[in-house]
From TrEMBL:
Stored SUPFAM superfamilies: lambda repressor-like DNA-binding domains
Name recorded for this polypeptide: HTH cro/C1-type domain-containing protein
Organism: Alloscardovia omnicolens
All copies of domain HTH cro/C1-type, residue ranges: 11-65
Alphabetized Pfam families for the sequence: HTH_3 (PF01381)
GO molecular function annotations of the record: DNA binding
Length: 81
């Protein structure tokens, strides 16, 4: 799995945990819902700007979002051992 895939999983999880909507995130990013869906389904790559704005929408810094994604990657890889 590519590193950016973990960002998509993390953003989905954080949206759910914070009771935020994908529509709200798409509006905040200035993209349509379909484009966001492509990002969340890992069919299109995120830009750094989009990740930074998504983090802000979630009440996180870009670095906090990155750390959560890295932790998710470590957990998944550890589970595959």
């Amino acid at each position: 799995m590519a590193v950016l895939d973990y960002y998509a999983q993390t953003i989905r999880a954080e949206l759910a945990a914070r009771h935020l909507t994908q529509i709200g995130l798409a509006d905040y990013l200035g993209i349509d819902r379909r484009t966001l869906d492509y990002r969340l389904r890992k069919e299109r790559a995120w830009t750094v700007d989009e990740l930074s704005k998504a983090a802000d929408f979630l009440g996180l810094t870009y670095w906090q979002l990155s750390e959560l994604a890295a932790e998710r990657e470590k957990r998944e890889k550890k589970g595959q051992e």
